[in-house]
Amino acid sequence: ICPYCFQFLVPDNHRVRLKPKMKVTPRIESVLRREAKNHKLNMKQTKLLRKYRDSRSVVLVTCNSCNKTTKHYGNSRDSLAAMTHHSGTPAIRSGLKTPDRKISSANKMTPASCSRSGSKGKSPSSLPRAFVPGQTPNNSFSKTPRNSKYHFSKLKWMLNLEEKEESQKADLKTFLTLL
């Protein structure tokens, strides 16, 4: 059924075309190889790779009576790769793998303001808010934000810091109750 004129689409009153997804070019191949070797990618390369991974085939259906075209999108390469990679495994396990993929792609795309402030190493965003005695500061703060593990290690460090503070508070409560 055409969503514009609500006519049934029978073989003689519509035209179907396939707009294929982006093909692998030599430039995309080289960027994929660089990513496989865990090299840093600049913003242009990251954008090209994201465009390649998010590309999807489109079926264009043109109704002859109203001359309007409807697009029907297929799956992107990223989602197809995730489906084939996790086929035969339980849904719970595949759900656990999904965030890792999203985190790695998000880490490679950092705004220019973050990369400038992170390269100095002394900006307020890269320093811890409070210093806990007996704990050495993590070396991940001196790394540039373009490092793929930077955000993950920073979040992990902050979570460990929170857990230690909570455990110290609990120890203080137990200590006071014992008195």
Automatic annotation (TrEMBL):
Pfam families: Rmp24-like. InterPro entries: Rmp24-like. Residues 87-147 are annotated as: Disordered. Residues 113-129 have a biased composition (Low complexity). It comes from the Eukaryota. Residues 135-145 have a biased composition (Polar residues). Belongs to the UPF0711 family. This is CR021 protein. It comes from Nothocercus julius.
